[in-house]
Amino acid sequence: FVRIVDNMVSQCENQPLFSGRVWMMGGAGLLDIPHTDLIGNHLPGFPPAFQYHNRNLDRLRQTGLDWSVMCPGTMVDSKDDSSQARLHVTAEVLPLPFTEAIRELSEAELAGHLFSRLQELDVAYEDVAKCMLNHLDLAGPFKGKRVGLAYRSEMSVR
Predict the structure, then answer these.
(1) pLDDT digits 0-9 by tens, 50-100
(2) What is the helix (H) or strand (E) element at residue 129, kind and residue range?
(3) Which of 40, 58, 93, 136 is most buried, judging by how many CB atoms fall within 10 Å of its CB?
(4) Cα(151)–Cα(82) distance, rounded to whole angstroms?
(5) DSSP H helix total and E strand total for the chain
(6) How far is CA 19 from CA 38, 43, 51, 113, 157, in A?
(7) What do you get for the CA distance between the two ends of the chain, in Å?
């Protein structure tokens, strides 16, 4: 996975006629946890394979390309009840509400809290694709950023 991403980025860098946005897929574990200086992938209990996403993000950060990383939770088939919830899109941070009390948790407690809320990050494949396709313009709002998605019917804070 790391070699594939490195090869794709290198090909774009070395192609003088390439002038587009590079979108890569990551996961919600790449996003900052609000009110902390942590990302999910650095917490105990997150699968070691998620570290590959960290390496791919590092590779993108080293390039001069116009890039973004889509960081959804679990992608699912289209949601039947999505008309009652709106898609909440964030840059750099998890698209879930958290109180500042989150910073009082140990890393293990924080990991447990995030695991208990993973279903809140489920998002339909089509909404992930639409978000990426709607942000192909160069120098757009997500240039050089990680992008999170979640459905929100209200902005309650846990």
Answers:
(1) 899 999 999 999 999 999 999 999 999 986 655 557 899 999 999 999 999
(2) helix 125-133
(3) 40
(4) 8
(5) 4, 6
(6) 33, 36, 29, 41, 41
(7) 35
Q: Where are the alpha helices (DSSP H) in 15-106?
A: 51-61
The predicted model scores a pTM of: 0.89
Task: Spell out where the chain has E strands.
Answer: 21-25, 66-70, 75-76, 86-91, 123-124, 145-152
β partners of residue 66: 21
**23: closest CA among 73, 57, 48?**
57
Tokens 């990551």 belong to residue: 26
Question: Are 79 and 132 spatial neighbours (Cβ–Cβ below 8 Å)?
Answer: no
- Residue 26, classified by CB atoms within 10 Å of its CB into exposed (0-12), middle (13-18) or buried (19+), is buried
Give CA–CA dist 152/6, Å, rounded. 34
Pairing of strands 66-70, 86-91: unpaired
Length of the chain: 158
